[in-house]
Amino acid sequence: MNVKVFRTKEVQDLLKAAVNIDDLSGNPRLKEILNRLLGDLFKAIDDLDITPDEVWVGVNYLNKLGQDGEAALLAAGLGLEKYLDIRMDAEDREIGIDGCTPRTIEGPLYVAGAPLRDGVSKIDINADTDAGPLVIHGTVTGPSGEPVAGAVVECWHANSKGFYSHFDPTGAQSEFNLRGAARTGADGKYEFRTLMPVGYGCPPHGATQQLLNELARHGNRPAHVHFFVTSAHHRKLTTQFNIEGDPLIWDDFAYATREELIPQVVEKTGGAALGLKAETYKDIEFNFVLTPLVQGKDNQLVHRLRASAAA
Length: 311
Ligand code: DHB
Ligand code: FE
Fold this sequence. Notes:
There is one protein chain. The chain has 6 helices and 13 strands. It has helices at residues 9-19, 28-47, 52-67, 71-77, 80-94, 207-214, and strands at residues 111-112, 116-118, 120-122, 133-141, 152-157, 179-183, 189-195, 224-230, 237-242, 266-269, 280-285, 288-289, 307-308. The radius of gyration is 23 Å and the shape is globular. 3,4-dihydroxybenzoic acid is lined by residues 73, 76-77, 81, 105, 107-109, 200, 221, 254.
């Protein structure tokens, strides 16, 4: 088939009817967005001569994506979440915000409600024989370098199998294992005592990996640790760091790696005195530089559906 029907009155009327564009009731913003997206899809079907069989493959894929609960995972894997970061970075540059700790994607595996402790937070609850001890610490400062008191640093990461508690298919982890929060004191300092993570891989039989296979792409991330940093007088920071030396650092399927987010890993001794499981441990210093509110507001706060559990 090499027909072109997109510009016909019949199709344009169909598009308008589908989103009920001429009716002022309903959700006008949704109508605007859906009108554009559906129109782009119709046009792509015309331009690329997408066959009915191909359309139904796509429709059925969406069903599997939903059944597997992987829409947010796919969003990261296709670069959509990174694209939103690129746009927020550009907006920051336009209003002169720079010199802060760079943002990077949140990913779909945060769980709200993890225990909050003052200063130091030990977050490894379950034993993990394949993971060595890791201390993560640093200072939260504002844009001029002043320590921020009362900031809450939330941290979450995978275990030695690359699995996150709450989402672990083996059921091996308790609810908030390797998740927790630390509140800074007057010195702005926070610390997590935990275990070294291993990189995450998409569920091998899930919809995301199925699509990635067709693209000849892997679905793996380098070892990394996620953070939210919140403070009453600053914008919320969503970021991660990668574990130096991981071979996938510059080959992350979710595109989260940034030059400034690869801190040095230092080997130290004295772990027993810190309550760690071995005398020798890995130490990462990672400082957070927050950005000011914009006209009294966090102009880039992201609302999305997040898992939550009771501590
Ligand atoms: C994704 C992000 C993660 O941090 C992770 O551990 C797994 C998946 C993601 O963006 O899809
Ligand atoms: Fe992650």
